[in-house]
What does this fold into?
Amino acid sequence: MARIQWVGFDGDDTLWKSEDYYRQAEADFEAILGGYIDLADPRTHGHLLEVERRNLKIFGYGVKGMTLSMLETAIQLTNERISARDLHRVIEIGRATLQHPVDLLPGIRDAVAQIAADHEIVLITKGDLFHQEAKIAQSGLADLFHRIEVVSEKDEVTYARVLRELEVAPDAFAMVGNSLRSDIEPVLGLGGWGIHMPYHVTWALEAEHGVAHDAPRLRVVESADQLTAALAAIEAIPDA
It folds into this structure.
C-alpha cells in the first residue's frame, strides 16, 4: 500500500483567493484603455496576455510583473498616446492588487490541519517573494506547515530539488493545487501524486498543460473537505 510521507500545498487559489483580484485588475485596466482604443478590435484581443508571456522570464510571476506588462501594453496599444495620469492609474491598479485581503477558501484550514496531523506538509507557492510572504503571514496558516517554499517557477527541476531536500521519494509525495500546469503536471512527471482542486477561474497561461484526465496518479476533488478522503484513497491503493 502507498504511504504518502509529505503532502505539498499550493497557495494562490488553493489555500486563498487570488485570481479573482487579477481579473478585477484586468477589467480596471481595460476600462482605462477603452478611452483610447476600441476594445472590440480583434487586433487588441489577447495583447496583454502575450506581453505577459514574453515578460515572464524577465519579471517573473505576480502582481509587479503584471503591472509592468500592463504599462507596456498600454503604451503599445495607444501608440504612446496614453497620458501620464492614466499610466499612474495603471500603477495604482497594481498597488491595490498587492494590497488585496487574504481570504481563505472554505474549509481549507480544517483540511490542512487534518492532513498535518498525520503527514509532513509543505507549502510550495510561486510569485513575488514579498507578496507571497505577506499573504502567507496574513493567511494564519503558516504555523501548520513544516516547511514553506516560495519559488520563481514550478517545474520538474524545482519539485525535484524540493523533494531532494525533504529526503522523500516522488511516489511518497502528493501535491494539492488548482493548477494542472504548475501544481500537478511536474509532480506526475517525477512519479509523484497530484490532487487537483480546481478553482472557478484560471489564468490563461496556467490552463496550458499536458495532463490527461485519466492519469493514473491524478485525483480530482471539488472542495477542501474532500482532500483527506482523496489522500486516504491514494494510500489505500495496493502496490502503488
User: Anything to note?
Assistant: The longest helix spans residues 19-33. The first strand starts at residue 6 and ends at 9. The chain is about 45% helix and 10% strand.
